[in-house]
């Protein structure tokens, strides 16, 4: 009799635990993560255009009154294709791009899709925010904004691992040779991501350096 009671209690406890686990599992499955348009902007755009959309002239314009210059469809198209120094954000879902666009136009928007960004995409975004105003990645890239004002031709950086290992690259960033500012305060992880991104691109040509002018065989 005692054994039967113990068996019955154990069975009931097992059923309760299984029901609880199944119920929690279903609850977790039904939870969908979401992200606001503002959060998406801060994550993907603020490194170039500023936390408050104030921009960083001349390379990165202010977006505070972008509604007076561009329509919703034009902003969406630009996010998908990119233009000049601005990269494409086609890796984001259309829902995420619409949420960013809505935020820029003063709407309270959000996306139920949260795309994971790869380390190479992070490196590309960091390069655009910190380096693209002076340096190209590929020969066919648009002329960087600051090259003309300084009258110099900084190196095209695609395939940088063919010339410099990471430690040499980091030392250059920390030193800031010629008119290049020092990036000593940049987090090491960010420097590594930039280096990996540049290393993933096919080399622009043979590298050499002549004083402050960093040239290669394609004339730059």
Provide an overview of this structure.
45% of the residues lie in helices and 5% in strands. It is mostly helical and 220 residues long. It folds into 2 domains: 35-111, Cytochrome c-like domain (Cytochrome Bc1 Complex, Chain D, domain 2, Orthogonal Bundle); 119-216, Orthogonal Bundle (Cytochrome Bc1 Complex, Chain D, domain 2), CATH 1.10.760. The strands form 2 sheets. The protein has a two-stranded antiparallel sheet. It has a two-stranded antiparallel sheet with strand order 3-4. Strand 3 and strand 4 (213-216) form a beta hairpin. The protein is globular.
Q: What's a quick, concise take on this entry?
A:
The chain is mainly alpha-helical. The protein contains 9 helices and 4 strands; from the N terminus they run H-E-H-H-H-H-E-H-H-H-H-E-E. The chain has a two-stranded antiparallel ribbon with strand order 1-2. Strands 3-4 form a two-stranded antiparallel sheet.
Q: What is the secondary structure topology, with strand pairs?
A:
Blueprint: H1 2-30, E1 35-36, H2 37-44, H3 46-49, H4 72-81, H5 94-104, E2 110-111, H6 119-130, H7 147-150, H8 166-175, H9 188-199, E3 207-210, E4 213-216
Antiparallel strand pairs: 1-2, 3-4
Helix pairs in contact: 2-5, 4-5, 6-9, 8-9
């Amino acid at each position: 009799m005692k054994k039967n009671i113990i068996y019955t209690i154990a069975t009931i406890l097992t059923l309760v635990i299984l029901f609880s686990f199944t119920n929690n599992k279903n609850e977790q499955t039904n939870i969908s993560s979401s992200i606001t348009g503002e959060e998406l902007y801060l994550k993907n755009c603020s490194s170039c255009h500023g936390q408050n959309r104030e921009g960083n002239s001349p390379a990165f314009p202010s977006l505070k009154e972008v509604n007076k210059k561009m329509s919703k469809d034009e902003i969406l198209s630009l996010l998908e294709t990119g233009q000049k120094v601005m990269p494409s954000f086609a890796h984001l879902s259309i829902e995420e791009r619409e949420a960013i666009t809505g935020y820029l136009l003063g709407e309270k928007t959000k996306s139920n899709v949260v795309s994971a960004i790869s380390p190479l995409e992070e490196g590309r975004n960091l390069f655009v925010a910190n380096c693209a105003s002076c340096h190209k990645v590929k020969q066919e890239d648009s002329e960087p904004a600051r090259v003309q004002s300084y009258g110099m031709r900084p190196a095209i950086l695609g395939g940088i691992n063919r010339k410099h290992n990471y430690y040499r690259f980091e030392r250059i960033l920390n030193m800031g040779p010629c008119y290049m500012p020092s990036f000593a305060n940049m987090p090491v992880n960010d420097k590594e991501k930039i280096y990996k991104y540049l290393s993933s691109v096919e080399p622009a040509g043979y590298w050499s350096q002549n004083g402050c002018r960093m040239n290669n065989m394609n004339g730059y």
